[in-house]
Write the structure tokens for this entry.
Amino acid sequence: VFTDDDPSDTGDFYEIEVNTASDFTGTVMWDSTKTSITSITNGARSSDISYAGTALTTDGTTYYWRMKFWDNNNGESTWSTTQQFTMSGPPNAPTSLEAEGATNPTDVTDLTPEFTAIHTDPNGDSTSNYEIEVDTANTFDGTRMWDTGQTAITVAHNARSADISYNGTALSLDGTTYYWRIRFWDTDSKVSDWSSTAQFTMLDNNVPNAPSSLYAEGST
């Protein structure tokens, strides 16, 4: 908004600076220099001014900007207060992973266990998709039991996902430990890093072997 103590003055020029630092001592992304603009009536908002500096990317970076006006008598204002804007960035890696409602559970009896995790996003975006991998190795280079691929889901920022039921290679009650991880895409199609690795262990339902090496009084 342009204002001037002289009611008849109009805003005829502007300058905008965009910088990586709030004190404008960082990288100069854009300095429009003194640039003409369609005259702004005293007390009115300027028309939109499109950014025309160094290319921005959707990487979550915050930039700082300020602006000043010249009136039709070439009087120059001081700088405005500093404002900022943050580019859209990827979600944070999912946290608080649970299988069957627990962290790293053992003695799992459900052959289609459910998985959940918490989603957070620096921009407050919700999710659009997820991917889960389940593997026999904690390095995820063993036998791949399940890879959901990119699958639709909606999870609000700072919320836990709904249960996601296992739908991979059949599991057995054999005491095997499996490792899993998850990642989310946000509504801007940005993908998070993989979560930390979690695990779950199936119940060992095999009967024991018959006893052997029987002793009575310490001997056979």
Remarks:
- The radius of gyration is 30 Å.
